[in-house]
Amino acid sequence: MASTSTSPPPAETQTFTTMDKDLDAIGSHCQYNYCNQLDFLPFRCESCKGTYCLEHRTESGHKCPRAGEWAAARRKAEALSPTTNINLPGKPTLLTASQCSHPSCKTYINTLSSVGVGCPTCNRQYCLKHRLEEDHSCSTLIPIGVRQSSGPTRADKAKAALGRLRVWGKEKQAAVLPKPKPSTAASRILAVNALKKSAKGDAKVPVEKRTYLYVEAEANTTSSKLPKGECFFNKEWSVGRVLDAAAKTLQVENVNNRGGGEEERLRVFHVEMGRLLEFGEKVGDVCVSGNTVVLLRGVGPAA
Protein backbone atom coordinates (compact mmCIF):
# COMPACT_ATOMS: atom_id res chain seq x y z
CA MET A 1 0.00 0.00 0.00
CA ALA A 2 2.87 2.45 0.78
CA SER A 3 4.33 1.98 -2.66
CA THR A 4 1.03 2.95 -4.24
CA SER A 5 0.84 6.38 -2.48
CA THR A 6 4.29 7.48 -3.80
CA SER A 7 3.49 6.82 -7.51
CA PRO A 8 4.73 9.46 -10.09
CA PRO A 9 2.31 12.12 -11.42
CA PRO A 10 0.26 11.28 -14.51
CA ALA A 11 2.09 11.44 -17.85
CA GLU A 12 -0.62 13.72 -19.33
CA THR A 13 0.33 16.59 -17.00
CA GLN A 14 3.97 16.42 -18.07
CA THR A 15 3.03 16.33 -21.76
CA PHE A 16 0.79 19.45 -21.48
CA THR A 17 3.51 21.44 -19.76
CA THR A 18 6.05 20.55 -22.45
CA MET A 19 3.64 21.55 -25.27
CA ASP A 20 2.92 24.90 -23.61
CA LYS A 21 6.63 25.73 -23.57
CA ASP A 22 7.14 24.74 -27.22
CA LEU A 23 4.40 27.06 -28.59
CA ASP A 24 6.68 30.08 -28.61
CA ALA A 25 9.26 28.10 -30.57
CA ILE A 26 6.74 27.27 -33.31
CA GLY A 27 5.46 30.79 -34.11
CA SER A 28 6.42 34.42 -33.55
CA HIS A 29 4.79 37.35 -31.82
CA CYS A 30 3.67 40.34 -33.88
CA GLN A 31 6.06 43.25 -33.34
CA TYR A 32 3.41 45.90 -33.90
CA ASN A 33 2.83 48.04 -30.80
CA TYR A 34 -0.04 46.90 -28.58
CA CYS A 35 -0.54 43.70 -30.64
CA ASN A 36 2.09 41.09 -29.68
CA GLN A 37 -0.20 38.36 -31.05
CA LEU A 38 1.34 34.91 -31.48
CA ASP A 39 1.11 33.90 -35.14
CA PHE A 40 2.13 30.41 -36.25
CA LEU A 41 2.66 31.71 -39.82
CA PRO A 42 4.17 35.15 -39.29
CA PHE A 43 4.98 37.60 -42.09
CA ARG A 44 8.29 39.38 -42.56
CA CYS A 45 8.44 42.99 -43.75
CA GLU A 46 11.29 43.36 -46.26
CA SER A 47 11.58 47.09 -45.60
CA CYS A 48 11.99 47.20 -41.81
CA LYS A 49 12.82 43.47 -41.37
CA GLY A 50 10.13 43.11 -38.68
CA THR A 51 7.80 40.15 -38.09
CA TYR A 52 4.05 40.71 -38.02
CA CYS A 53 0.76 38.87 -37.88
CA LEU A 54 -1.76 38.53 -40.68
CA GLU A 55 -3.57 41.73 -39.70
CA HIS A 56 -0.43 43.90 -39.58
CA ARG A 57 1.58 42.26 -42.36
CA THR A 58 1.39 45.23 -44.81
CA GLU A 59 3.55 48.35 -44.51
CA SER A 60 0.51 50.49 -43.96
CA GLY A 61 -0.90 47.94 -41.46
CA HIS A 62 2.07 48.24 -39.07
CA LYS A 63 2.97 51.82 -40.03
CA CYS A 64 6.36 50.78 -41.34
CA PRO A 65 9.06 53.37 -40.55
CA ARG A 66 10.86 52.46 -43.77
CA ALA A 67 7.85 52.17 -46.05
CA GLY A 68 8.72 51.83 -49.73
CA GLU A 69 12.41 50.97 -49.29
CA TRP A 70 12.04 47.37 -50.49
CA ALA A 71 10.01 48.35 -53.57
CA ALA A 72 12.49 51.10 -54.48
CA ALA A 73 15.45 48.74 -54.12
CA ARG A 74 13.74 46.16 -56.32
CA ARG A 75 13.00 48.72 -59.08
CA LYS A 76 16.61 49.87 -58.99
CA ALA A 77 17.91 46.32 -59.26
CA GLU A 78 15.61 45.57 -62.20
CA ALA A 79 16.74 48.73 -64.00
CA LEU A 80 20.40 47.79 -63.61
CA SER A 81 19.90 44.13 -64.53
CA PRO A 82 20.98 43.32 -68.14
CA THR A 83 18.20 40.75 -68.41
CA THR A 84 15.40 43.20 -67.66
CA ASN A 85 14.22 43.51 -71.25
CA ILE A 86 14.60 39.84 -72.13
CA ASN A 87 11.24 38.17 -72.74
CA LEU A 88 10.97 35.14 -70.51
CA PRO A 89 9.39 32.06 -72.04
CA GLY A 90 5.70 31.87 -71.33
CA LYS A 91 2.40 31.42 -73.04
CA PRO A 92 2.93 32.08 -76.78
CA THR A 93 1.15 35.02 -78.37
CA LEU A 94 1.15 36.69 -81.79
CA LEU A 95 4.00 38.88 -80.54
CA THR A 96 6.24 36.03 -79.37
CA ALA A 97 5.35 33.25 -81.82
CA SER A 98 3.81 32.65 -85.23
CA GLN A 99 0.69 30.75 -86.19
CA CYS A 100 0.33 27.86 -88.60
CA SER A 101 -0.16 29.17 -92.14
CA HIS A 102 -3.29 27.07 -92.67
CA PRO A 103 -6.25 29.53 -92.79
CA SER A 104 -8.38 27.63 -90.25
CA CYS A 105 -5.57 26.64 -87.87
CA LYS A 106 -4.74 28.77 -84.82
CA THR A 107 -1.87 26.64 -83.53
CA TYR A 108 1.24 28.54 -82.45
CA ILE A 109 4.38 27.08 -83.98
CA ASN A 110 8.10 27.40 -83.30
CA THR A 111 7.49 27.27 -79.54
CA LEU A 112 8.76 24.94 -76.81
CA SER A 113 5.70 22.72 -77.16
CA SER A 114 5.01 22.91 -80.91
CA VAL A 115 7.57 22.90 -83.70
CA GLY A 116 7.05 24.39 -87.14
CA VAL A 117 7.57 22.53 -90.40
CA GLY A 118 8.41 24.44 -93.58
CA CYS A 119 6.87 23.45 -96.90
CA PRO A 120 9.51 23.68 -99.67
CA THR A 121 6.83 24.08 -102.35
CA CYS A 122 4.82 27.07 -101.08
CA ASN A 123 7.52 28.39 -98.69
CA ARG A 124 5.17 28.56 -95.67
CA GLN A 125 5.36 27.29 -92.10
CA TYR A 126 2.81 24.77 -90.77
CA CYS A 127 2.12 22.77 -87.64
CA LEU A 128 2.58 19.01 -87.60
CA LYS A 129 -1.08 18.44 -88.47
CA HIS A 130 -0.91 20.49 -91.70
CA ARG A 131 2.71 19.83 -92.71
CA LEU A 132 1.87 17.66 -95.73
CA GLU A 133 1.09 19.33 -99.07
CA GLU A 134 -2.33 17.71 -99.37
CA ASP A 135 -3.24 18.87 -95.84
CA HIS A 136 -2.82 22.57 -96.67
CA SER A 137 -3.86 22.55 -100.37
CA CYS A 138 -0.36 23.42 -101.48
CA SER A 139 -1.16 23.12 -105.20
CA THR A 140 -3.57 26.08 -105.01
CA LEU A 141 -1.11 28.45 -103.31
CA ILE A 142 1.32 30.86 -104.89
CA PRO A 143 4.79 30.28 -103.40
CA ILE A 144 6.01 33.08 -101.16
CA GLY A 145 8.87 35.01 -102.75
CA VAL A 146 7.85 34.26 -106.32
CA ARG A 147 7.17 37.44 -108.28
CA GLN A 148 3.72 37.35 -109.79
CA SER A 149 3.21 38.42 -113.36
CA SER A 150 1.38 41.75 -113.31
CA GLY A 151 0.67 41.81 -117.02
CA PRO A 152 2.43 41.78 -120.38
CA THR A 153 6.20 41.82 -120.35
CA ARG A 154 8.27 44.63 -121.83
CA ALA A 155 8.87 42.57 -124.95
CA ASP A 156 5.15 41.96 -125.36
CA LYS A 157 4.44 45.68 -125.00
CA ALA A 158 7.08 46.52 -127.59
CA LYS A 159 5.63 44.03 -130.09
CA ALA A 160 2.12 45.31 -129.51
CA ALA A 161 3.24 48.93 -129.90
CA LEU A 162 5.03 48.19 -133.17
CA GLY A 163 1.96 46.35 -134.41
CA ARG A 164 -0.22 49.38 -133.64
CA LEU A 165 2.37 51.58 -135.29
CA ARG A 166 2.17 49.66 -138.58
CA VAL A 167 -1.62 49.53 -138.57
CA TRP A 168 -2.05 53.21 -137.77
CA GLY A 169 0.59 54.16 -140.33
CA LYS A 170 -1.20 52.34 -143.13
CA GLU A 171 -4.61 53.70 -142.11
CA LYS A 172 -3.39 57.26 -141.78
CA GLN A 173 -1.45 57.16 -145.01
CA ALA A 174 -4.52 55.85 -146.81
CA ALA A 175 -6.66 58.61 -145.32
CA VAL A 176 -4.21 61.49 -145.64
CA LEU A 177 -2.64 60.49 -148.94
CA PRO A 178 -5.49 59.65 -151.32
CA LYS A 179 -4.86 58.67 -154.91
CA PRO A 180 -3.81 61.59 -157.12
CA LYS A 181 -6.70 63.49 -158.63
CA PRO A 182 -6.86 66.75 -160.59
CA SER A 183 -8.39 68.54 -157.62
CA THR A 184 -5.96 67.13 -155.00
CA ALA A 185 -3.68 70.20 -154.85
CA ALA A 186 -6.61 72.59 -154.54
CA SER A 187 -8.22 70.44 -151.89
CA ARG A 188 -5.05 70.43 -149.85
CA ILE A 189 -4.75 74.20 -150.04
CA LEU A 190 -8.31 74.55 -148.79
CA ALA A 191 -7.66 72.05 -146.01
CA VAL A 192 -4.51 73.90 -144.89
CA ASN A 193 -6.35 77.24 -144.89
CA ALA A 194 -9.09 75.72 -142.74
CA LEU A 195 -6.41 74.22 -140.46
CA LYS A 196 -4.78 77.63 -139.99
CA LYS A 197 -8.06 79.11 -138.80
CA SER A 198 -8.73 76.42 -136.18
CA ALA A 199 -5.20 75.53 -135.04
CA LYS A 200 -4.06 76.38 -131.51
CA GLY A 201 -0.58 77.14 -130.28
CA ASP A 202 1.78 79.69 -128.75
CA ALA A 203 0.56 83.12 -129.86
CA LYS A 204 4.11 84.48 -129.58
CA VAL A 205 5.24 82.40 -132.58
CA PRO A 206 5.33 84.65 -135.69
CA VAL A 207 2.89 83.69 -138.40
CA GLU A 208 5.63 83.27 -141.00
CA LYS A 209 7.43 80.72 -138.76
CA ARG A 210 4.41 78.53 -138.01
CA THR A 211 3.92 74.92 -139.13
CA TYR A 212 0.31 73.74 -138.92
CA LEU A 213 -0.20 70.06 -138.11
CA TYR A 214 -2.95 67.60 -137.29
CA VAL A 215 -1.97 65.95 -133.99
CA GLU A 216 -3.30 62.76 -132.46
CA ALA A 217 -2.11 61.17 -129.23
CA GLU A 218 -2.44 57.87 -127.46
CA ALA A 219 -3.68 58.59 -123.94
CA ASN A 220 -3.78 54.99 -122.76
CA THR A 221 -1.87 51.99 -124.10
CA THR A 222 -4.96 49.81 -123.59
CA SER A 223 -7.41 52.19 -125.23
CA SER A 224 -8.12 52.61 -128.92
CA LYS A 225 -9.50 56.13 -128.46
CA LEU A 226 -7.06 58.83 -129.54
CA PRO A 227 -7.26 62.49 -128.48
CA LYS A 228 -7.10 64.75 -131.50
CA GLY A 229 -6.19 68.36 -132.05
CA GLU A 230 -5.14 70.93 -134.63
CA CYS A 231 -1.99 72.80 -133.60
CA PHE A 232 0.74 75.05 -134.92
CA PHE A 233 4.39 75.06 -133.85
CA ASN A 234 7.52 77.08 -134.55
CA LYS A 235 9.46 75.64 -137.47
CA GLU A 236 12.68 76.06 -135.48
CA TRP A 237 11.46 73.87 -132.61
CA SER A 238 12.89 70.41 -132.15
CA VAL A 239 10.63 67.39 -132.33
CA GLY A 240 11.13 66.90 -128.59
CA ARG A 241 9.79 70.37 -127.84
CA VAL A 242 6.89 69.83 -130.21
CA LEU A 243 6.07 66.59 -128.38
CA ASP A 244 6.00 68.40 -125.02
CA ALA A 245 3.74 71.16 -126.34
CA ALA A 246 1.39 68.73 -128.12
CA ALA A 247 1.09 66.47 -125.04
CA LYS A 248 0.24 69.50 -122.89
CA THR A 249 -2.37 70.74 -125.37
CA LEU A 250 -4.07 67.34 -125.66
CA GLN A 251 -3.69 66.67 -121.89
CA VAL A 252 -1.72 63.47 -122.41
CA GLU A 253 0.60 62.23 -119.64
CA ASN A 254 4.21 62.88 -120.60
CA VAL A 255 6.92 61.20 -118.50
CA ASN A 256 9.77 61.50 -120.99
CA ASN A 257 11.78 63.78 -118.70
CA ARG A 258 11.48 61.53 -115.64
CA GLY A 259 13.93 58.93 -116.82
CA GLY A 260 11.43 56.07 -116.94
CA GLY A 261 11.49 52.99 -119.13
CA GLU A 262 10.92 53.10 -122.84
CA GLU A 263 7.51 51.45 -122.50
CA GLU A 264 6.19 54.63 -120.81
CA ARG A 265 7.82 57.23 -123.08
CA LEU A 266 6.09 59.06 -125.93
CA ARG A 267 7.42 59.14 -129.48
CA VAL A 268 6.34 61.18 -132.50
CA PHE A 269 5.22 59.22 -135.57
CA HIS A 270 5.05 61.11 -138.90
CA VAL A 271 2.16 59.60 -140.87
CA GLU A 272 3.08 60.88 -144.32
CA MET A 273 6.71 59.76 -144.00
CA GLY A 274 5.76 56.55 -142.20
CA ARG A 275 8.50 56.76 -139.57
CA LEU A 276 9.29 57.85 -136.04
CA LEU A 277 10.95 61.25 -135.77
CA GLU A 278 14.12 61.83 -133.81
CA PHE A 279 13.80 64.20 -130.84
CA GLY A 280 16.61 66.40 -132.14
CA GLU A 281 15.17 66.98 -135.63
CA LYS A 282 13.61 70.36 -136.43
CA VAL A 283 9.93 70.09 -137.11
CA GLY A 284 10.24 72.53 -140.04
CA ASP A 285 12.73 70.22 -141.75
CA VAL A 286 10.56 67.09 -141.64
CA CYS A 287 6.98 68.42 -141.63
CA VAL A 288 4.95 70.79 -143.78
CA SER A 289 1.64 72.36 -142.94
CA GLY A 290 -1.20 69.91 -143.28
CA ASN A 291 0.81 66.88 -142.20
CA THR A 292 -0.34 64.52 -139.43
CA VAL A 293 1.72 63.35 -136.46
CA VAL A 294 0.74 60.83 -133.81
CA LEU A 295 2.10 60.63 -130.25
CA LEU A 296 2.61 56.94 -129.46
CA ARG A 297 3.67 55.39 -126.18
CA GLY A 298 6.08 52.49 -125.84
CA VAL A 299 7.09 52.08 -129.47
CA GLY A 300 10.83 52.23 -128.76
CA PRO A 301 13.52 54.55 -130.11
CA ALA A 302 13.46 55.68 -133.72
CA ALA A 303 15.20 53.29 -136.10
Automatic annotation (TrEMBL):
InterPro entries assigned to the protein according to its UniProt record, in alphabetical order: AN1-like_Znf, UBL_ZFAND1-like, Znf_AN1
SMART domains listed in its UniProt record: ZnF_AN1 (SM00154)
GO molecular function: zinc ion binding
Pfam families: UBL_ZFAND1, zf-AN1
PANTHER family: ARSENITE INDUCUBLE RNA ASSOCIATED PROTEIN AIP-1-RELATED (PTHR14677), CDC48-ASSOCIATED UBIQUITIN-LIKE_ZINC FINGER PROTEIN 1 (PTHR14677:SF40)
Domain AN1-type stretches: 24-72, 94-146
Protein name: AN1-type domain-containing protein
TM ranges: none
Organism: Lepraria neglecta
UniProt keyword terms in alphabetical order: Metal-binding, Zinc, Zinc-finger
Alphabetical list of SUPFAM superfamilies matching this protein: AN1-like Zinc finger
Domain of life: Eukaryota
One term under GO cellular component: cytoplasm
